[in-house]
Structure prediction request, 184 residues.
Amino acid sequence: MMVGVWIDATGDNPQERYGQRLRAWRHAFAAANSEPQAGGITLDPLHYAVAAWDVATRPVSEPPYVRFNPRVLDATCHRPEGTHIALAVVELAAPPPVRVPDGWLGWQQGESGFPCMAPPYNERAALCTLELRIPISADRLPTPTRPEADGLPNLADAQAALEALIEEINTAVVPFLRVLEGKR
Prediction:
């Protein structure tokens, strides 16, 4: 089954590592002035989900708790100011819309067989990307529960928020991945 992003369940205790990162980055979950909160932690589904995403992805998380399909070059989630949505922005490696002149390189074959690696920097390259902007409304995200310890986000709530974001992102991204890979 093709997916764009997923939670990495490999290695030594990835969920435990994610829990440690949540504790280290608890400030990302601090309630803003107008948000509902408990024990200093936001109960706003959008703020909580975006913070959970940030803690699960690079550069905060190394190795990342959320992994990307090789064609997904980057995926971020943020809350645009003055809105009531989370906005996922996913950048995909894409073929050029025009014929590339001789002497220029494009995406190179990666280890997994996907053409998604950039050529070396000392070569001329024409790299095309496709940016997907995916608005995610708060009603598609779980509402966090009261923290088990004041000032610390709950691992179960962060996990649920990540799973909801990943489902929304994959629903939008997978059809594009299928077309790009010729697997309609």
